[in-house]
Each structure stands twice: as C-alpha cells, then as structure tokens.
Design brief:
single chain, alpha/beta, 3-stranded parallel beta sheet, 7 helices, 47% helix
Amino acid sequence: MPVLRRENYTETEYHMKKESRSIKTFYGADCIAENKSAFSDVHRAFIVTGRRGAAASGALADVTGVLDSVGAEYVLFDRIPENPPLEMCFEAGAAARGFKADAVIAIGGGSALDAAKAVAAFAANPAVQAEELPLVTLAAAAAVCEAVEEAAG
C-alpha cells in the first residue's frame, strides 16, 4: 500500500483515500495465519516491536513468515521501550522512510502500538521534526480506575 501523502491529491481525493484505509488489528491464536490476505499488498514492511516480547511470544516469527510467503521485504525495529520517547519514534520514522516502507506493522503491547502510529506519521511526513510536534496525552484508563476505586471506597 503506497504511502498516502496529502500533497499528491486534491482535498476531496485525499479524504476519500484516507477514509478507505484502516488500521487492522489482529489478536488471538493463529490470527496472523488466518488473516494472511491482509498482508497481500505489503511489499516493504517496517516492523515495530519491543525488545523481547514479540520474538518470545512467537508473534514476530508468525508475521515474518507471512511476509516471506507474500514476497515482502521487511526491516525490524525492535528497540521500543515502555513509554517510548518521541525522538525514538522520529528516528524509526526516518528509518521507515529511508527503507521506503509501504506498511508499518506493530507487534506487542501499548508501547509498540503507540510508537508505530508515530513512526508511520513521521515516515509519511518528512517535513515534520520531532521537536515541532506537540504531544499531550491523557491516561483516561487510569482516571477511570481511580474513579471506580473512589466510588467503591
């Protein structure tokens, strides 16, 4: 799937193409093998994972096996820590862009999934620098847990 760049389309075309794309999330036993067709348009994948979990769980081998079977090339970025710094995501985005990735694949928990979103954004938008991208987050799950705890207390 080619990278969707706003400057290549009229505003209407861009939004139509953007809406036709979606993030695909798979989970459960054999989920990669059962969804092999989702990888059929991938030619150059940039895989984002933490340091150990994806390999230890076997998920990385499942993904690379499917990518091999569809003839896709891939690069592994397996350095994502908990709460990945934006600069690391920027570095990975530049690497994905340099590799000419047409897909970013995240394997792991929240840190890897969140990092992969930023990696894809940086890869598709080379004009944006990490220090130019303000980032504010709100841990809504923690707030909900705290509220439930107070209500139960």
